[in-house]
Amino acid sequence: MQVSRRRSAGLGLALASAFAFGCSGVAAKPLIEAGIDPLEMVWLRVAGAALVMLPLAWRHRGLVRRRPALLAGFGLLAVAGVQAFYFASISRIPVGVALLVEYLAPALVLGWVRFVQRRRVTRGAAAGVVLAVAGLACVVEVWSGLSFDAIGLTLALGAACCQVGYFVLSDHGSGGDDPVDPVGVIAYGLLVGAAVLTVIARPWRMDWVVLAGGAEMDGTVVPAVALLGWVVLVSTVLAYLTGVVAVRRLTPQVAGVVACLEAVVATVLAWVLLGEHLSAPQLVGGAMVLAGAFIAQSSTPKADAGEVASAVPPAGPVSAVGSGTAAVPGAGPGDTGPDAAP
Q1: Quick one: which of 86, 92, 132, 248 is 20 to 30 A from 98 by CA?
Q2: What pLDDT is stored for residue 288 in this prediction?
Q3: Taking Cα atoms as reference points, which of 253, 257, 9, 41 lies closest to residue 134?
Q4: Long-range contact pairs involving 61-67 (C-beta distance under 8 Å, separation at least 24)
Q5: Are the beta carbons of 325 and 127 closer than 8 angstroms?
Q6: Gap between the Cα atoms of 121 and 308, Å rounded
């Protein structure tokens, strides 16, 4: 009963995280269209969230001595890495293709469990991943922009690997004799990510006047600062908090499949709030992603059942391994998940 409640709570948190990450593109796109560069938008998102989490980082300052590798890894991979690789990839290949490659992360997580952790993976979990990825291909309508660019695809795969790092590192430190508070990991991860992205985005060149005005959302002018506040507080702080806790209550691979819903949320919200059209294949794809997430989640044995099919990576030193992303132009992983769409 306790395990079932823990899994139900974890699934709810994973859905909340996918929704929060998925909202990012809808709020960020009007700001980008108003004159903010996409990379500058990512920096505003991460730096603003880091500023919000700064008091909590001070409260958990002991983590800097206890688990420096975990904090650095989370910041470099789960925050900065996903964003940087994603935006570099969409400069060479279509957004839909980049999103599809990035969201191969759930399949890569299963590969991590099967071949690195050497744990058995259920057929249901594997089938759920395949169905979710196929559905995602329909959601982003990947066929509408197919083109081959080896460098672009490699960069998108880099974003996928960084997103794997998000799910794996989110689970590290959750057990053992020295458990790590996920709030501290997120706070320092955002600080590290903000520092790295500052060098890449060079925000001192940004036109800050844009934030003092308004941005148009499907014909309605919304204060730019309000949209930025939503991106920072909901689509970054809340998204990362619920996402990391969800991974710890579920498993990295199950949470990864549920995170595919992020693109569905982004597409639906873009339809409702930005007036972007949804095609029949996108609707079918959304249903496939939902079905795949359900299959993967329900096929995972309970944590106390001998050999687990979706095994949780053990706590320990961080090894070198981006929320979530939104399916609209200019959005990136990360947000993902962590992919972090702006």
Answers
A1: 248
A2: 86
A3: 257
A4: 63/180, 63/181, 63/184, 63/185, 63/188, 64/188, 66/178, 66/180, 67/173, 67/180, 67/185, 67/318
A5: no
A6: 8
Hunting for tokens 């044995």 — which residue is that? 301
Q: Tell me how far apart the alpha carbons of residues 97 and 92 are, in angstroms, rounded to a whole number.
A: 10
Query: Which tokens sit at 32?
Result: 């980008």
The model's pTM is: 0.76
> What span, in angstroms and rounded, lies between the C-alpha atoms of 263 and 24?
11
Angstrom distance (rounded) from CA 74 to CA 54: 16
| Intra-chain end-to-end CA distance of the chain, in Å | 39
Confidence of residue 176 (pLDDT cuts 50, 70, 90): low
CA distance 238 to 215: 23
- pLDDT, residue 339, reads 41
Mean pLDDT of 256-267: 76
Segment 261-267 shows an average pLDDT of 76
pLDDT tens by residue, 240-257: 999 998 888 887 767 777
Spatial separation of the C-alpha atoms in residues 91 and 199, rounded to whole Å: 19
CB atoms under 10 Å from CB of 105, counted, come to 36
**185 near 70, Cβ under 8 Å?**
yes
Distance CA 6, CA 239 (A): 19
Q: Where are the beta strands (DSSP E) in 202-263?
A: 214-217, 220-223
311/119 Cα distance (integer angstroms):
7
